[in-house]
């Protein structure tokens, strides 16, 4: 009978791991987990900072040209996706900007005069 009693789990045996270590063990575990998460999520920034970026040896003009090429390729991909030419993207998705500029260039029409404009106010 004593053999069966030793093999069964007693409440005191189950709680032994949670007693005595307390707050210090939990604090150390939390700090280690946070440090691992912060370092793991910072790898792209650390790589760019310490190894340099791809544009480190470029002049400002070369950086600008690279950015324009990247933007142009992105616009071409978007235009191809929507089945329009890249030049029509502004008018198609920009709130009809051609119509807005055309209407702003036309002279404003004079509002019609009120019907009783010649009569003095009462």
Helix content: 55-70%
Rounded to an integer, what's the Rg over CA atoms? 36 Å
What's the total count of β strands?
Answer: 0
Shape: elongated
Question: Could you give the topology of this structure?
Answer:
Blueprint: H1 2-7, H2 11-15, H3 22-41, H4 43-51, H5 60-82, H6 89-93, H7 97-105
Explain this structure to me?
This protein is mainly α. 63% of the residues lie in helices and 0% in strands. It is built from seven helices and no strands. The longest helix is centred in the middle third of the chain and has 23 residues. It is elongated, with a radius of gyration of 36 Å. It starts with a helix and ends in a 17-residue tail after the last helix. 0% of the residues are buried. The model has no long low-confidence stretch (mean pLDDT 74).
Quickly describe the structure.
With 122 residues, the chain is mainly α. Helices cover 63% and strands 0% of the residues.
Give the key terms:
122 residues, mainly alpha, elongated
